Amino acid sequence: MKHILVLGSEGFIGRHVVTAAIQQGHHVYGVDIADKMPAAYNYEKLSLLSADIDLFLSAHPFDIIINCAGSGNVGFSVQHPLTDFDLNTRSVVFILEAVRKHQPAATYVHVSSAAVYGNPHTLPVTETAQLQPVSPYGYHKWMSEMVCREYAALYGLRSAIARPFSVYGPGLQKQLLWDLFQKASRQQEIVLWGTGEETRDFIFVEDAANALLRMGTLETGTSTVYNLAYGQPVTVRHAAGLLMESLGWNRTIHFNGEVKEGDPRFWQADISAIRAIGFEPSVSLVEGFKLTAAWLLSLKESQ
Hints:
It contains ten helices and 13 strands. It is of the alpha/beta class. The strands form four sheets. It has a seven-stranded parallel β-sheet, sandwiched between helices. It has a two-stranded parallel ribbon with strand order 7-10. Strands 8-13 form a two-stranded parallel sheet. The radius of gyration is 19 Å and the shape is globular. It holds the Pfam family Epimerase.
């Protein structure tokens, strides 16, 4: 049994990491800024952009610290780049400085993003590909990775960096599937961004959570980077049709041909590195979309 801290424990990925860690028998502590009722794990409300995180880590020892906190909204980063920098880069400095001072033996798992790749020149994209972000969010995630490398190189902190691609599943109330569901709930004809031929590499959130926990158990390496995806490209058009099929809805879907600011065009990950440490995605796209559709329908029925 490990003592695991999940930063951003009330966010989409963080909640699933907490659940997976509890199921695996670990002792779990969560930190976030949300008010919540007592749950099946210890929780504390605090800001990562304050001295509170320093005090917290001085009082509670952990084997693994998984950082799922920060903003994951590309559009928000375009409109509010300074706030996005605070949430995705500056906060990491606060965290790692506290780890350096109080828990240098802990393994720090950092959730970055495939947005650091921008529009890669070749596919599938490997962890050694040139980084060329196309949004403030992508740049700030790149900067956060550099902070991890700084603390690994200069202070010997053990860390692992995850670059998730398109994480989806129950609980995600934004991005393609959520937006499509909201539109399809109101109208028969739907217009989406792009041409429909853009590709995404989807990974079900439970798989992503298990991968992050696996990364936290590694005993060697500093600031090792892992792509987090299924390893298969899926067009936005196919994903949209599959969601409608999973919902049992018949809708006409059009694409406006316009590129949404900050969005990449084509994504496919090489997942050889994460496979080499014993992780294999287990939830297929069809199964994952069915589970997501069931959750979406349950929300609609409860309204």
